[in-house]
Structure prediction request, 194 residues.
Amino acid sequence: MLQKFVDYVKLTWDRKLTESTGGNMSIRIDDKIHITPTGFIKHFFSVEDIVITDMNGKQLAGRYRASSEIKMHLKIYKNRSDIESIFHAHPRNALICAINKIKINTHILPEAAFLLNKIAYLPYSQPGTEEFAQGFVNDVKGGCNTFVLENHGVTTCGKSIEAAFARLESLETCAYLSVMQELIDKKPNDIPLE
Ligand SMILES: [Zn+2]
Prediction:
């Protein structure tokens, strides 16, 4: 499970879904949070670099400090027992949407419409703060798994590492298509909503 987590974290960086030291990812195993360290280029991530904390963010193991966004991860896990993994990243097309308040159209592809059936657009808040983490609570409680963060990035959650990652990549694909649609200035064919 830990090696799988490492593989998906590296995949996020290698597929340009986040850049430089940006983004942070976690999994929950038996009420322990396994999270990426602060200031780390994810391409070089290994099992030895994982930081482990309890559900209050107290560090239990790891040679580095946990990501400064751990408050967001804890807030989401505490409010939804079904979530086992969280990916926060700065994908470039989703960022264009987040900066320009463009709604990401997910009703153009069947898989995306299913995976991303609900997206919360959260107003800008200083990353790493309690206020920023608190901003997720209402939508998380309402069952939302996908968040677009104004002038910042995106956060996706899931019952598994694969589910959280799939939401992240699918969201970025839809963001790319939404940005291109704006550029070619044509209305897309939507798929019918049941
Ligand atoms: Zn961020």
Observations:
- Residues 2-184 form a domain with the L-fuculose-1-phosphate Aldolase fold (CATH 3.40.225.10).
